[in-house]
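Ticket #4471: structure export looks truncated?
Reporter: QA, pipeline team
Priority: medium

Steps to reproduce: submit the single chain below to the structure queue and open the exported record.
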Amino acid sequence: MAYNKTLAEKVRNLIQENQGLSEKQMFGGLAFMLNGNMACGVVGEELMVRVGPDHYQEALAERYTRPMDYTGRPLKGMVYVEEDAVAEDLDNWVSRGVNFAGSLPPK
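Actual output as written to the record:
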C-alpha cells in the first residue's frame, strides 16, 4: 500500500474529533470512513475526496483536481486532489469529504 504517510497523518489530525471515524485500506491507499461511509483518503501523494454527485462538477472545475478513476472509469462524486492543492487547502478538501459522508445514513 503506497500512500503519503505524512499527508495521512495531517488528515487524521483534522478529522480525529468526528465520532464514528475509522480507517480502511482501499484503492491502493488509506481511506477515512465516517460511520462506514468513505469521506476522503490518501493514494500516493494525492488526496481522494468524496464530494458527492451534486458537487462533482464543481469540484472538477477547481485547479489541481481530476476524476477519480481507480477502476479505469471515473467514479462520479469522487475526485483526486493533487499535491499542490492539498498543500494550499487541505482543511477545505477534507471538510468537503466529511460533510458529504456525514450526510449519509450510517452503514
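Status: closed, not a bug. The export was complete when the record was re-opened. Leaving a note from the reviewer for reference: The domain at 5-102 is CATH 3.90.1150.30 (Aspartate Aminotransferase, domain 1).
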